[in-house]
Specification:
The protein is of the alpha+beta class. Helices cover about 30% and strands about 20% of the residues.
């Protein structure tokens, strides 16, 4: 049976994912995208990112706005954190609130909880499985958490910054070595240095790599993806930053993505 409201564990999970996604950069746009009026929120400004997300989730939960929570989970978070094996609580929330995720789009839409609607949905679901084939559905739905490299099609998140200003071209293969070359392009005239940050999905630490120079709009360097003890198949997020707000140092460990003037999209990779 589905529950209509979030528990504290669910709220904490959503806040953590929102902080990792850096959706606070455009708070008003986030509100518009999930279908709420930002003018009604007296906490949209002059609050920390964590406080904003906590108060936003509590507001949606207390007002019973499950449609907005579904949009938040499915339109904003699910495209970023695509692997259900790494976000079990997100999948649990989607099921709990009755958000239906079509197999082909990785988006969710709120559904009514009447018996007739469930019956119709079940019939449609069976038809989809028949057309696509059951093994295909199992792969997409995350029942195979240890997917190999060839089974991962889209490793790039939706645009979180301006994809035309910082673009990571390598690695272009999902499976990588411990010491991995990374390169890309930058279309910013006064940019001289770029920082790469690596985030393993198995913990909450963000590892700052050695900065590299930008020459003629291009950068190339090597990053460490885990260490000798990292299990094969461990997934990582990598991201590039130009002109960070606070000073960064090689080897520095952070508890979130750093703030910066320019930020690349998140790239998902996996250790061989």
């Amino acid at each position: 049976m589905c529950s209509d409201s979030l528990e504290q564990l669910d709220i904490d999970a959503l806040v953590e994912l929102l902080l990792r996604s850096q959706q606070s950069r455009e708070r008003k746009a986030l509100c518009i995208n999930i279908g709420i009026d930002h003018k009604r929120l007296n906490f949209i400004e002059n609050t920390s990112d964590q406080d904003f997300f906590i108060r936003l989730i509590h507001y949606l939960n207390e007002t019973g706005n499950n449609d907005a929570i579904c949009n938040l989970c499915c339109k904003e978070l699910l495209p970023i954190f695509r692997n259900p094996a790494n976000t079990p609580l997100l999948e649990k929330i989607i099921v709990k609130l009755g958000c239906n995720r079509p197999i082909t789009t990785l988006e969710c839409i709120p559904i009514f909880r009447s018996k007739n609607i469930f019956l119709i949905s079940g019939i449609i679901f069976v038809i989809i499985l028949t057309v696509l084939g059951f093994p295909v559905y199992k792969q997409i739905s995350g029942n195979y958490p240890n997917l190999n490299c060839q089974n991962i099609v889209d490793k790039t998140s939706k645009n979180l910054s301006s994809p035309t200003k910082i673009k990571i071209n390598l690695p272009n293969n999902v499976c990588v070595e411990k010491l991995q070359q990374i390169q890309g392009k930058v279309t910013v005239q006064d940019a001289k240095t770029i920082w790469i940050v690596v985030k393993p999905l198995i913990d909450s630490t963000y590892y700052v790599q050695e900065p590299t120079n930008i020459n003629d709009g291009e950068f190339k360097t090597e990053i460490y993806v885990g260490d000798n003890n990292t299990p094969p198949g461990t997934e990582f997020e990598i991201r590039a930053f130009i002109k960070p707000s606070n000073k960064l140092n090689k080897g520095q460990k952070l508890d979130n993505w750093p703030d910066a003037k320019l930020v690349s999209d998140i790239i998902l990779i996996k250790r061989k």
